[in-house]
Design brief:
The chain is of the alpha/beta class and 240 residues long. The chain is built from eight helices and seven strands, in the order H-H-H-E-H-E-H-E-E-H-E-H-H-E-E. The chain has two domains: 36 residues, no CATH class; 161 residues, Rossmann fold, CATH 3.40.50. It starts with 8 loop residues before the first helix and ends in a 6-residue tail after the last strand. Keywords: Methyltransferase, Transferase.
């Protein structure tokens, strides 16, 4: 799973027994050498879709990590691009990779922006938010968008029941629940708590208009449905 440049087992264990913030501070220097970084095919597919949805002026990457999404935003936005994350270590890596972007340290559940962005994206961060936190997160993103602005993120289809990916996610979430029941501080990261029906309901409750676009570059399942969809949530015009 990991390249020789990635973290050791001991480093991963220390990270897993830390808080989310401190854990990512520790992992940040080697994060891009792990499988946790958003894969390039997903970034390319989202960028292609955004090219058809634009143009965009200002862009925001929510929970930006080391800046993979910011690199995409800089290619599809004509104006300033901003990344926000609560890990100082991850922001340091992102700033080194993209010095021309703006970097803000903040919790995504309390974004320090007014309605200034035309486009917001997020990649691979939603497992860090418990289901009851998701509507508040969506409301914060909506408040950061101009009327007509888009909040866009990829949402892979759930793995087939009984597949290796299914058992991995099930086992990971079970292990994380046991860890959080026995150890403090908690490290919230679950694969199976971000379901499409709940996401659509939460986005609608936050005041978004929601549609789904297939990402054909990422292939289809046996039943012909896409392996991954792009969730496109629009803040309606004329809303406060």
């Amino acid at each position: 799973m990991f390249t020789p440049q990635g973290p050791t087992f001991r480093e991963l264990a220390v990270q897993a027994l830390s808080s989310i913030e401190h854990g990512y501070d520790l992992l940040a220097p080697k994060f891009d050498a792990t499988p946790f970084r958003t894969p390039q095919p997903i970034l390319h597919a989202v960028e292609s879709a955004l090219g058809r949805l634009g143009p965009f002026e200002r862009g925001l990457d929510v929970c930006c990590g080391t800046g993979a999404g910011v690199g995409l935003l800089r290619r599809v936005c004509d104006g300033q691009v901003t990344g926000v994350d609560f890990s100082a270590g991850m922001l340091a890596q992102a700033r080194a990779a993209h010095p021309a972007a703006t970097w803000v340290r903040a919790d995504a559940r309390a974004l320090p922006f007014g309605p200034r962005f035309d486009l917001a994206v997020s990649f691979g961060a939603f497992g860090h938010f418990l289901p009851h936190e998701q509507p508040g997160l969506f409301a914060q993103v909506r408040a950061s968008l101009r009327p007509g602005g888009l909040f866009v993120f990829p949402l892979p289809a759930p793995p087939r029941v009984g597949s290796k990916a299914y058992w991995f996610m099930l086992g990971f979430d079970a292990a994380m629940r046991v860890r959080n029941a026995l150890w403090r501080p908690r490290f919230v990261m679950y694969y199976r708590t971000f379901r499409l029906a709940d996401v659509r309901e939460g986005l609608a409750a936050a005041g978004f208009e929601v549609r789904l676009l297939p990402l054909p570059e990422l292939g289809v399942r046996a039943d012909g449905s896409p392996n991954c969809r792009l969730v496109v949530a629009r803040r309606p015009m004329g809303t406060s």
